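To illustrate this point, we now present one chain and its tokenised fold:
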Amino acid sequence: MIADKQFEKLKSLEILKPEYFNWANDIFEGIHVKETPDANALLWTDGKIVLHFSFLEISQQTNKLLNFLRHKGIQQNNIILTQLSLQPLNWFSLLATIKGGFRMIPAANILGVQDLVYRFEKLMPEVVIADAANAAKMEEAERLSGKEILVKIIAEGEREGWHTLEDIEKEDINAVGAVTKADDSLFLFFTSGTTGMPKVAIHTHLSYPFGHLTTSSWIGLRKEDIHYNISQPGWAKFAWSSFFAPWNVGASIFAFHQTGRFEAKETLKLMEKYKITTFCAPPTVLRMLIQEDLKSYDFDLRECVAAGEPLNPEVIETWKEGTGILIRDGFGQTESTCLVANLPGHAIKFGSMGKPTFLYEIIIADEHGLELPVGEEGNICVKMNTGKPNGIFNDYFENPEKKKEVFKHGLYYTGDKAFQDEDGYIWFVGRDDDVIKSSDYRIGPFEVESVLLEHDAILESAVVGSPHPLKGFEVKAFVILNSNYEAAEALADELFAYSREKLSPYKMPRIIEFVTELPKTISGKIRRMELRVVEAERKAKGIVVDQEHFYVRKS
């Protein structure tokens, strides 16, 4: 296939890491503002107001913010923490951070005061930028930490002790960018914390901007595209697909600032109205979208991808039937860019994450760094001694033990398990900690969850190991039902029977618990660790939950 030949050509390119690099200076302004200043860079709406920003206008707003910060004494390498809803200031803040040589801690809206205190104690920011809903949390966290924030900027209205957008608007529209080295720190990402307290992954001026060329290629972005990524600011996926991936190629970003609950119909109508051509969403959102009559919309979609959690086949099939577009899966982390993907134009094996992207050499390895044979489950690892730059993070802040754990044998260990088939496709098994060990069998939760999600009654599921005196662990499924179903013994029996038909006996759930919500990280990933802890504590104390929502397989 032509796509395969082009991909191999990409992989064979000689790539040399520059000593100095600043994406805002070199790419955003050096290419897009210079060559297409009037092209649309950002199309923002809250459903009522619609704002269009050209590349030149984005640059001018960025420069005003940068000049304001400099006039307030903020210097290169100082830290900016942002906690904003989906407002245009997000994009200006990110660009100003890069151009000014500052460092950024993105914080999601759902983080509470103690989460902010944890961040302030680790890395106290000189600047905070917040909306009205988050400003009070910032002030309380500042008080509890016993430290002082030098500059506070509020994104809307006025607040005592905070600078306003009107203050920034007075600044000059021109600013000289900082000189930054490729290896200088840029992002300080507090990771999702699926297996403990958040760690601080440090990305550089090269690793994320340059590394997201793989994300651009995975999505299949072109300069003329209008790209919509459903993601909230504050976690890595926003930087992935709402910033670097589209703007690496000069595409337009669509942003819908939704203030209430997520409404599938409203989202689909906006995609139709604004002629979205490329689309990225987490499986949780896609499962809600496919409940609607997709064929009743006149979409302009060309490419669709999903990220955050592995995608189950039912979503792919229903979306393809309704839109004519195949959703392609991809895999990456906060600590990386897109590592493995099903690329546009390439043959796809349903259920597989695809093949390694062009900046990465990936193997499935054991704990000693030895590459495993085809079909054998092991660690997804990235070769680090290739001589080529990639998008892997630089370090963990003040956590040398964790760094030693993930960087060893010349490899970066992602912490995820998979196997590779004879054609080079990688098949996800689960987080290393999530794999269930039952009667000497190893069971990946994703396979079981995927089967359950194919049943009409189930909206979401999370599978973990429940302690068992003989087996070690047995498979338990926490299940959220679709709105037209109710928890009942008959439904549980139906799900047990359904699982028996679709799964090997040792993989099928032995316990089903109906729940109304699942614990998740700020990036929307299920915290199976939290469910495991709850389950272990229940078993240790002999606690049995409400029998109306908890069922054990009878045979």
